[in-house]
Amino acid sequence: MSDGQSTILVLEDEELLLTAVTRKLELAGKRVIACASGKQALDTLTESETVPDLIWLDYYLKDMNGLEFMQKMKENPKWENIPVLVVSNSASPDKVTKMMGMGVKKYVLKAAHRLDELVEMTNEISAGKEVHEKNSDN
């Protein structure tokens, strides 16, 4: 912790995007745990002695959705305070409300932001700062 480097668990099932996000976060000085499925992420969290500083969560995964993942996280007191950034292809008001109610720090549309902007949001959330979007009316 004293090295100032935070650990981000990236949960994204689109392989190319997972690789791109991982690379961008590593270039920004983050440790990255890359997971391609909800099960893999939950197994990683279970097996790890430490918790990540933030989870980047794709809402639509092949094995579960973001709400199901958040419900599993809330079942373990060790994980319930990990900040979560949801990055999704869709954001109905109902879905956003439910996810925010589960403790998500920010819910953003992939298409509305460049990857650099999403990485900046990740940095801000992992540093405990309030996140303000630049190019969205969300």
Give structural notes.
The chain is of the alpha/beta class. It has a single domain, classed as 3-Layer(aba) Sandwich (Rossmann fold). It is built from 5 helices and 5 strands, in the order βαβαβαβαβα. A 5-stranded parallel sheet has the order 2-1-3-4-5, sandwiched between helices. α3 links the parallel β3 and β4. The longest helix is centred in the first third of the chain and has 13 residues. The chain is globular. The N and C termini lie far apart (33 Å).
Write out key terms for the chains shown.
138 residues, alpha/beta, Rossmann fold, 5-stranded parallel beta sheet, globular
Placed side by side, the strands forming the largest sheet appear as: 2-1-3-4-5
Distance between the first and last residues' Cα: 33 Å
Q: Which structural class should the secondary elements be placed in?
A: alpha/beta
CATH architecture: 3-Layer(aba) Sandwich
- The CATH topology assignment is Rossmann fold
In which range does the helix fraction lie?
A: 25-40%
What is this entry, summarized?
The protein is an alpha/beta fold and 138 residues long. The chain is 38% helix and 17% strand.
Ordered list of secondary-structure elements with their pairings:
Layout: E1 7-11, H1 15-27, E2 31-35, H2 38-47, E3 54-58, H3 66-74, E4 84-88, H4 93-101, E5 106-109, H5 115-126
Parallel strand pairs: 1-2, 1-3, 3-4, 4-5
